[in-house]
Amino acid sequence: MVFRWLIAVPLLALLTVGFSRVAQDRMEALREEANEEEMLYLPNQNLLNYFTAGMNSIVADLLWLRTVEYTVTEFHNEARKFTWLEHMLSTITRLDPGFEGAYVNGGALLAAIGADDAALRLLKPGVIALPGSTDIPVEVFKVYVLNRHDRPEAPVIAGHYLRMAAERSADPGQRQFFLNVVHGLQRQNGLAHEARRIWEDTLKTSQDQVMRDIAREKLIDLAIRDNMAALNPILGQYESLRGRKAASMQELVEAGLLEKVPQIPDHGEYFIDSRGILRNSVLLEGDTIQLRDFINARIRTFKRDKGRFPASLDELSAWAEKPIPAHPFEDRVWAYDPVSGMVE
Q1: What are the residue ranges spanned by the domains of the chain?
Q2: Which of 26, 120, 149, 260 is deepest in the core (most CB within 10 A)?
Q3: CA of residue 27 relative to chain centroid, distance
């Protein structure tokens, strides 16, 4: 990187000398006519390729710095046209297809100004050019979730790219997080069939054991939710017949509405809580882990603010001005250790 910057200054001088005087005069006139189009000072990609003499990445670095400067200038300009932003970014990535930051940050900039078509035109080639990048497919996911959330195809495409990011990640925790988000996206948008197809494909084809384990876990989750969707109407029938909610799964069997209490390997226990709501122990364990991690993250934020752990969860709640989520299992409470600052 130091070598690249040592060459940058003389190379910039070479580029400047290389332009004809006629071209400079013409561009100066254009600049006077429209100051916001000052990017006309930049030659097109073919001309840059001619002058770079094999040092494309250095020119790409220089243009990236110019792009940052241009973006800041336009941001403070009342019109905020960003006329040349896509052109500059695409030129950078064509000069240096391995410039991950240009794809990621450039795509984020384009999406932030509402140019999601331009963002995808920049990002999608980057997904192919840098097959080891996790950040680029994550940015594509963001475009579909944030900019195109109102389009019916967005959840499926967004899930595809975040799953791709999970496949590429070397961090098991990050993989788990990405795949949990994909799973939640599928559930929220009624994509159970699509979800099942994706996880079955992952289980069969992935070369990574962690990915296969997660896929197996998600398939079990889908199967449990299917069973609960089938059992809930039976609870409704019981209430209509007896005038009250069922207190246990066994009562459904005794009423002749259910052949037997489901006992399926890996599905945990199906049961009815004190409010008459159907629950499953595997799903509740998953909810417990997610809420525990959420509370622990809030504790870490408290420590950064106060320089210490909260003395109790009540203190944490008062500081955050938000209640601590109840434990998913109604007969359990959170166990908090103020010494370690961890909830279990």
Answers
A1: 1-96, 223-283, 294-343
A2: 120
A3: 42
